[in-house]
Structures are given as C-alpha cells and as structure tokens.
Amino acid sequence: MQPAAQNNDALLQASRRLDWRFLFPEPELGQVACIGSHDPELIESLRLFSSEFSAGDAAADSRERAPYDVVVLRNPTPEDLAGAISLLRPGGWAYVEVEGSSSLRRSGRGRSARGYANALRKLGLVDVGAYLHWPDFGSCRAIAALDDAAAVRQALARGRRGGRAGIVRRLAPVLAATHLLAAVAPCASAVGRRVHSEEGGG
C-alpha cells in the first residue's frame, strides 16, 4: 500500500472513532477539551479532527474563559461533569461516554447513559439525549437513541452476536420497551447543549 493510501486509511479509522459528532447539528468539532481519563484512540482522533485540543489540567485552566465548543468525558464523577460544563461556550456541547457502567455504578462512581442525561438537564443543558453505540465505541456500526425502541432493535441487528453483546441483543425488545437498556448497554453516551443567553440559561 502506498503511503498516501495508508494515511487516508488511518484518517478514515480515526474519523470512525468520532462518529458521534454527527449527533450535533454541526459535526465540525472546533475547540475541544477532554476531562478525566480516555482511551488513546479517542485522544488521537480528537487531536486530528479538532481545530484546538486540550486535555486534563490544561483544559481546566481555561475555565474562566469557557472557550470550548465540545467537552468530552468518560464515566465522569458529578464534580467532573459540573466542572466540564463550565468550560463550554454558550451553544457548546457536552459528550459523555459510558462504558462498563454496571461495575462503576455498583462502586458508586458512575451512572447509566440515561442517568448522565438527567444530570446534564439538571445542570441546565438542553437538547439532551442518550444513545447506544453498537457494538462498541471503537468499531461502531450504529448509533441509536435509547428512547427509540425500533431504532435500538435495528442497531442491535448489526455486528457481533456472541457473549454479552449477544445477550443484550436477544433481550433488546424488552429492555428498550421498558427503558432498561441504558442500564446494561455495553457502550452508550449522553449529550447536551449549553444554552445561549437569549434562551434564558447560562
């Protein structure tokens, strides 16, 4: 394979890790901050597709300017979530990845995607949603709103069938209909937008 083709393949794979950006009205990420821990693939993809990227303490140091178009978190604590929202410019988006959430919830350190969506609403965000990423974030074949049972069933029809994923797939109609899928989904997310001042928020 020629170097240019290899570079194109690498960019394509990196962009797949950010398929969730199409949940936003404008998929251009702009200025992005990562708060807390993230997988290396996500960090590298964000570096490639952001106009400006900050992580950890560098992002927190910008809190008073609230310069970011997008903040990205993974299984955050309530404190991390509230702090991240303060980094958003008006109209900016928070994106929260929820992976392996059942063990985190048992330890009191995490929530389901629906729980994070509720937390975003309480923090004043609007256009909030919770989504299933199937079969996982890195090899995502489908993203479906957790409140849309038909879309969830269609998404779960794709990808691998064995293991925990297969069990979730078989139980999907009941889980989606009873709004329990967010509690057992292997990979899910919550998103929300910080309001503009003219919308009556912060």
Short précis:
With 202 residues, this protein is α/β, with parallel strands linked by helices.
Write up what this structure looks like.
- This protein is an alpha/beta fold.
- The protein has a domain at 3-129 and 188-195: 3-Layer(aba) Sandwich (Rossmann fold), CATH 3.40.50.150.
- It has helices spanning 3-16, 40-49, 57-60, 78-85, 101-106, 113-122, 149-156, 163-177, 181-184; strands at residues 31-35, 52-55, 68-74, 88-99, 126-134, 142-145, 187-193.
- It has a 7-stranded mixed beta sheet with strand order 2-1-3-4-7-5-6, with helices on both faces.
- Strand 3, helix 4 and strand 4 form a beta-alpha-beta unit.
- Helix 7 (149-156) runs antiparallel to helix 8 (163-177).
- It is globular and about 45 Å long.
- The termini are far apart.
- The model is unreliable at 1-6 and 101-108 (pLDDT under 50).
Provide the fold topology.
Blueprint: H1 3-16, E1 31-35, H2 40-49, E2 52-55, H3 57-60, E3 68-74, H4 78-85, E4 88-99, H5 101-106, H6 113-122, E5 126-134, E6 142-145, H7 149-156, H8 163-177, H9 181-184, E7 187-193
Parallel strand pairs: 1-2, 1-3, 3-4
Antiparallel strand pairs: 4-7, 5-6, 5-7
Helix pairs in contact: 7-8
- Helices and strands, in order, run as HEHEHEHEHHEEHHHE
* N-C termini distance: 51 Å
Globally, the shape reads globular
The CATH topology annotation of the domain at 3-129 and 188-195 reads as Rossmann fold
CATH architectural group of the domain at 3-129 and 188-195: 3-Layer(aba) Sandwich
Query: What's the total count of β strands?
Result: 7
| Percent of residues in helices | 25-40%
Beta-strand residue percentage:
15-25%
**What CATH first level of the domain at 3-129 and 188-195 would be assigned?**
Alpha Beta
**Which regions contain 5 or more consecutive residues with pLDDT less than 50?**
1-6, 101-108
Could you tell me the mean pLDDT? Answer: 80
Helix tally?
9
Query: Structural class from helices and strands?
Result: alpha/beta
Radius of gyration: 17 Å
What's the CATH H-level homologous superfamily of the domain at 3-129 and 188-195? Vaccinia Virus protein VP39
